[in-house]
Every structure is written in structure tokens, then in C-alpha cells.
Write a structure and sequence with these properties.
The complex is a heterodimer of chains A (443) and B (68). With 443 residues, chain A is of the alpha/beta class. Chain A has helices at 20-41, 43-52, 73-79, 118-134, 156-164, 177-187, 196-208, 233-243, 357-364, 400-415, and strands at 2-5, 98-103, 113-117, 142-145, 168-171, 191-194, 221-224, 246-253, 257-261, 269-272, 277-283, 297-303, 311-322, 334-342, 347-349, 352-354, 369-380, 383-392, 420-424, 439-441. In chain A, strand 9 and strand 10 (269-272) form a beta hairpin. By secondary structure, chain B is mostly helical. Classes of the chains: A alpha/beta (443), B mainly alpha (68).
């Protein structure tokens, strides 16, 4: 007999509290299984491994995982240029077994097409159930999802995971922002899922267009995904105050799955679902594995149970660091601060290593500034030049000089760089409904 | 609509017995397909049962061998 603790606290009290050495043993078993599957069924992986002189039999111990070549997003794109359209050499099952289509946003180039079988799709939903349960979603919740229900995976699996958990789920698809707010109010929804950008935009619209306060709508918890923000302390604070609700982060990706979640302890980081995924952190320059806490690294990730288009040692380009254990009792490791950014966004400006997310923390931490901002890096002669566009909230419209002084001071402290600050009229900078594009590097 | 307070509720479960039941369900579902004569109303619904069984395998069966 096995003694379970916290059956009403964890979606899966067996896996989420498994001792570390057993998690590792389970991960190695599952890693070997998916590598064998990819090698046998996928021309993409077979070709990648053959070129590297690797075969699944080389996996004798956990550390051998590093012998497996990493996969780049470009590898998917090249493989998908072949037949059968549109998945080509990356497909591991007969085309007739594919039941779900989604695609990446194309932010970094040609979108990657994502096929899933019904089993894969069920696995997506199961992964989301881990997330939602850890964030306190239960069968008594009425969850509003203000999402466009389109080719992007976004909250699709969140929707079906809610159904699986017997939450009542309200699809806020084609409604505009004001209609969505009114529907939330009418139905007394108590939970919400959206990007941080849209969570703030909803609150702003509520205040400015409907003359209502989002904090009075009765929303108790908000799941954020799609972009960093819910783990940027100043942004989380803004959202929680605007809605009088708890805000939790989650990171997933179309070609990977729903692989991490912040729990109700709000430990300043996210758990990796280590029963379903292997996350490796590697040094940004040397590619050496990182096991210690507080050291930034690039995330290499494997989804153990995704079959139609496996994701094995995928170079996500995301940057994070391991954190300390969480008080919630889960043994799944924490990524401190969640995903800090992407390696292709972390850049050198005037010789200084720079991450745009640090600017967000400053802007959102100054109450006289609105939620929106835009950051542009350009060249002036040979020198890098930073322009930060911000808005003053209407009630602080006469405080431009004071705010500018404070902004410059905090930015200098936080990033060690100087900025040209531009104030724009309130509500004039672009508003985004899904993923915001506030950082532009034009060099 | 308030979220139920969580506690550290403890229970004893027979995970090996659960795994055996999961395998029994899988076998019975597969048998249904064998005897369906190709009826889509059976086969498609059994596929869904088998998918749920797979989630039970991921959640329970996969880990049983590592537990004391």
C-alpha cells in the first residue's frame, strides 16, 4: 500500500511529491522511450541522430541524455517543407491519425505546424489539469476564457482541462473586450485566463469605457500565459490590485506542451512538470549543464509523451534559473522568476548585457505610468540608442518632470543604461490582445 | 464559488492494484474493437476510452515500478 498525502491539494499526489531520485529514474525511462519512438518513426530525428552518430542504444545512464543532439525550431521548418503536407518529415504517425492542428505564432519566422493525435490532445489537456489544480481551480469555478479560439493553441487546452476537471467554462471567443467584461459580470465568472497584457487591458477598458472597477467583478483567480509578466513583481501587483484576485503564471509552447506552472504558494517561480517533461538548463556560453540554483541558463526541453510530432531536446531559447524548493510540498523543481526572456531578446547594448523584461519591472512599478510602453533600440552613428515610450495615467498628467526623473534613476540602477524618455498621450501607444511586441531592436 | 481550502489529507492506496485494473480496462477495450466488426460508433468511442486509459498509465502505471 502507498500512503498519499494531499489528495485534495495535488492533481497527482503520487507524481507531484515523488522523491527526487525516483523522478529522475522515471524521467530516464520515459526519455529512452520517446527517443526510441522518434528514431523509429520520424525521418527528422533519424536524420539528426544519424548525422551525429547517435543511436538510442547509446543511452545507458541519465547523463547520456546529453549525447542526444538538440533540435532547433529551424529543423522543424525544414522537415515540414516536405510531404506529407504540412508536417513532412517531422510526422511520426499516419496522417489520418492526426486530429488537431495548431501552429506557432510565427514571431521568429515561418510558423511551425503542430499535429496532434487524439491521445496527444488528451495529454495536452491532462498537462493543463496539473496547472489548473495547482492554482486552485476546482469544480465549483466558472471560468471565463476571453480568447479568439483560432489556430493558436493558447487557451484551447485550458478550456478542455477545465471541462475535464468539471469546472464550468465560458468561451469568450468572438466578443469584443467590453462585451467580454459585461458577460463576465452577467455570469458572475470567478476565474479568468489571459495574457498579462490583456488582463491589464481588460481592467483599463473596464475603468475607462464601462465606468466599472474590475476589482468588483468577483474574479478570484487569473491564470496568465503567452508572455512573461505574471512573474514580474510589478506587473503581477498591478494585475492583482486591478482585479482584487490572485494571479498565477504558466509557461507552455505549441511545439512543446504545457510544461510549467506557478502554484498557489506563489513562490516567485514556476514548477516544471517533471513527470511529463525534462527541462535541462545549460550555460548561455559554454552549454555545460547547470544544476545549481540562481545561475541563468538556456532551457532545453523534452516532452516525454507527445507522439505525432515529438519534442526531444528542443532548444527553446528561453532563459531561466533553478530556484529553491517550494513550500507547497511539490518535489517538481522550481524555475525562479519563471522564464526571464529569450536568448534572442537578451542582447548587448553599449556593451552591457540587457534583458527587456527589466524595463517592464521599472515601468510597471511607477504608479503614475500607464500599463503600456514601447522600447526601441537603434543605432545613432556607431552608438546604440535606447528610446522608451511611456504614458502618464490621466490623474498624473502634470507630473511629467518628476516621473521622468524617477524613471531615469530607476532604469540606470536596474539596467546601467541611459534612455531617451518620450511621453505619449494616454491610450495612444499600441494595445495588444494576445502577445505584445513592445521591444524593437532596429540595429 | 470560493475555492475549497486545501488540507494534507492522507489516504492509503494500492497503486499496483490500480495498475492491474488499468491494464484490465485496456485489454477489455481492445477486445471490444476486435469484436466490433468495424462499427465506427464502437471503434471511435473505444479509441477515446483507450486515450483516457493512456492518461491513467502516464499518471499511475509508469511510476509503479519505482515505488516501494
Amino acid at each position: 500500500m502507498y500512503q498519499l498525502k494531499g489528495v485534495d491539494k495535488y492533481w497527482n499526489p503520487v507524481l507531484e511529491t515523488l522523491p527526487r531520485e525516483k523522478i529522475k529514474a522515471l524521467q530516464f525511462k520515459k526519455f529512452k522511450r520517446i527517443v526510441e519512438w522518434g528514431y523509429e518513426k520520424s525521418k527528422l530525428y533519424r536524420s539528426l541522430y544519424d548525422k551525429a552518430g547517435f543511436e538510442p542504444g547509446d543511452l545507458k545512464k541519465f547523463e547520456d541524455i546529453r549525447k542526444v543532439p538538440t533540435l532547433q525550431k529551424e529543423d522543424y521548418r525544414e522537415a515540414q517543407a516536405k510531404e506529407p503536407w504540412p508536417y513532412g518529415d517531422s510526422l511520426c504517425v499516419p496522417l489520418e491519425e492526426v486530429t488537431e492542428y495548431h501552429q506557432t505564432s510565427g514571431t521568429t519566422g515561418q510558423p511551425v505546424y503542430q499535429p496532434d493525435t487524439w491521445q496527444d490532445w488528451e495529454w495536452w489537456n491532462e498537462s493543463w489539469a496539473y496547472i489548473l489544480f495547482s492554482q486552485g481551480f476546482r469544480n465549483t469555478d466558472r471560468v471565463f476564457i476571453p480568447f479568439g479560439y483560432n489556430v493558436f493553441v493558447a487557451y484551447w487546452a485550458g478550456h478542455y482541462a477545465c471541462e475535464k476537471m468539471s469546472c464550468e467554462v465560458v468561451p469568450g471567443g468572438i466578443l469584443n473586450t467590453e462585451e467580454r467584461l459585461l458577460k463576465m459580470k452577467e455570469l458572475r465568472a470567478n476565474a479568468l485566463m489571459a495574457t498579462p497584457t490583456y488582463v491589464l487591458h481588460l481592467a483599463e477598458t473596464c475603468r475607462n469605457k464601462l465606468n466599472m472597477d474590475a476589482s468588483e467583478l468577483g474574479i478570484e483567480k487569473i491564470l496568465c500565459a503567452g508572455e512573461p509578466g505574471a512573474l514580474v513583481p510589478a506587473t503581477k501587483k498591478r494585475m492583482e490590485e486591478a482585479w482584487n484576485a490572485k494571479v498565477y503564471d504558466h509557461v507552455g509552447a505549441t511545439e512543446i506542451g504545457a510544461w510549467s506552472y506557478e502554484c498557489t504558494s506563489q513562490p516567485g517561480g514556476m514548477h516544471v512538470n517533471e513527470a511529463y517533461f525534462l527541462v535541462e538548463l545549460v550555460d548561455l556560453e559554454t552549454n555545460e549543464p547547470i544544476e545549481e540554483i540562481n545561475k541563468p541558463g538556456r532551457i532545453i526541453i523534452t516532452a516525454f509523451d507527445r507522439m505525432a510530432q515529438p519534442c526531444i531536446r528542443f532548444d527553446s531559447k528561453d532563459v531561466s534559473m533553478w530556484g529553491e524548493d517550494c513550500e507547497c510540498g511539490r518535489t517538481f523543481r522550481l524555475l525562479k522568476g519563471g522564464v526571464h526572456g529569450r536568448t534572442d531578446h537578451i542582447t548587448k547594448i553599449k556593451g552591457v548585457l540587457f534583458s527587456p523584461i527589466s524595463v517592464e519591472e521599472v515601468v510597471r512599478g511607477i504608479p503614475e505610468l500607464g500599463d503600456e510602453y514601447e522600447l526601441i533600440v537603434s543605432k545613432r552613428g556607431d552608438a546604440d540608442h535606447l528610446t522608451l515610450k511611456v504614458e502618464l495615467v490621466p490623474e498624473a498628467s502634470n507630473k511629467e518632470d518628476d516621473v521622468k526623473q524617477e524613471l531615469v534613476r530607476q532604469l540606470r540602477l536596474k539596467t546601467n543604461l541611459a534612455y531617451q524618455i518620450e511621453f505619449h498621450p494616454f491610450d495612444s501607444l499600441p494595445r495588444y490582445q494576445v502577445k505584445a511586441r513592445r521591444f524593437k531592436d532596429t540595429r | 464559488m470560493a475555492t475549497k481550502e486545501t488540507t494534507d489529507l492522507q489516504v492509503l492506496v494500492d497503486l499496483k492494484g490500480m495498475d492491474k485494473t488499468i491494464q484490465d480496462i485496456k485489454q477489455k477495450a481492445q477486445h471490444l474493437i476486435e469484436i466490433s466488426g468495424g462499427m465506427q460508433c464502437v471503434d471511435r468511442n473505444v479509441e477515446r476510452i483507450l486515450t483516457s486509459v493512456k492518461m491513467l498509465e502516464l499518471n499511475i502505471s509508469d511510476v509503479v515500478e519505482f515505488l516501494d
